[in-house]
Automatic annotation (TrEMBL):
Residues 150-203 are annotated as: Domain III. It comes from Ornithinibacillus halotolerans. This is Holliday junction branch migration complex subunit RuvA. SUPFAM superfamilies: DNA helicase RuvA subunit, C-terminal domain (SSF46929), Nucleic acid-binding proteins (SSF50249), RuvA domain 2-like (SSF47781). Belongs to the RuvA family. GO terms for biological process: DNA recombination; DNA repair. The RuvA-RuvB-RuvC complex processes Holliday junction (HJ) DNA during genetic recombination and DNA repair, while the RuvA-RuvB complex plays an important role in the rescue of blocked DNA replication forks via replication fork reversal (RFR). RuvA specifically binds to HJ cruciform DNA, conferring on it an open structure. The RuvB hexamer acts as an ATP-dependent pump, pulling dsDNA into and through the RuvAB complex. HJ branch migration allows RuvC to scan DNA until it finds its consensus sequence, where it cleaves and resolves the cruciform DNA. InterPro entries: DNA_helicase_Holl-junc_RuvA_I (IPR013849), Hlx-hairpin-Hlx_DNA-bd_motif (IPR003583), NA-bd_OB-fold (IPR012340), RuvA (IPR000085), RuvA_2-like (IPR010994), RuvA_C (IPR011114), RuvA_C_sf (IPR036267). Pfam families: HHH_5, RuvA_C, RuvA_N.
Length: 203
């Protein structure tokens, strides 16, 4: 098991980062690679999970231990693989997610990509009571966190609108960390688009 990687962050891609560790380049898949934008060309310590399957050995990377822990728990749920877990983590506020599991809030859980009602119920069944041993929860969705809880449907609509305007995934993902800091759960689709365009024009 590779628990962490420390080296120079040399490249940020759409789905991964490249870490130079003593002259060896490690491709590390991350929920949102652009959260590491400020560390480009600097030394970075990243928490990792080494996933082994018959046809591939894949290294996943996380900003902190809570994110890594939630990933490992999610992939233990029937119907959720590493790819789905990464998609969930890309837009999740972790304490809010854990709180939703404890409240059995399947409506909140189904707002994430690839999570239908059946999968949401399986998450609750498998993880309720387990996540709180590692992660502190909030009683209600938080508004004063690094990555606010955003209405996923509004965010998806905003992203599709940006693509319709000609922006590509790489450009959109590059502004996501800053965008999540400036919008609130109550922010509607039009306002998200306006704030996103403002950030895109500053790039």
């Amino acid at each position: 098991m590779i628990s962490y990687v420390r080296g120079k962050l040399v490249q940020i891609q759409d789905e991964s980062i490249i870490m130079d560790v003593n002259g060896i380049g490690y491709n590390v898949i991350c929920p949102n690679p652009f959260v590491f934008q400020d560390s480009l060309n600097k030394e970075l310590h990243i928490h990792t999970y080494f996933h082994v399957r018959e046809d591939a050995h894949i290294l996943y990377g996380f900003k902190n231990e809570d994110q890594k822990y939630l990933f490992t728990q999610l992939i233990s749920v029937s119907g959720i693989g590493p790819k789905s877990a990464v998609s969930i983590l890309a837009g999740v506020n972790i304490p809010d997610f854990v709180s939703a599991v404890e409240r059995e809030d399947d409506k909140f859980l189904t707002s994430f990509p690839g999570v239908g009602k059946k999968t949401a119920r399986q998450i609750i069944l498998d993880l309720k009571g387990k996540l709180t041993t590692q992660i502190t929860i909030t009683s209600e969705p938080s508004t004063n966190t690094e990555t606010p809880s955003i209405h996923t449907d509004d965010l998806k609509e905003a992203m599709e609108a940006l693509k319709a305007l000609g922006y590509v995934d790489k450009e959109i993902k590059s502004i996501m960390p800053k965008l999540q800091k400036v919008i609130k759960p109550s922010t509607n689709t039009d306002e998200i688009i306006k704030k996103a365009l403002s950030l895109l024009m500053k790039r």
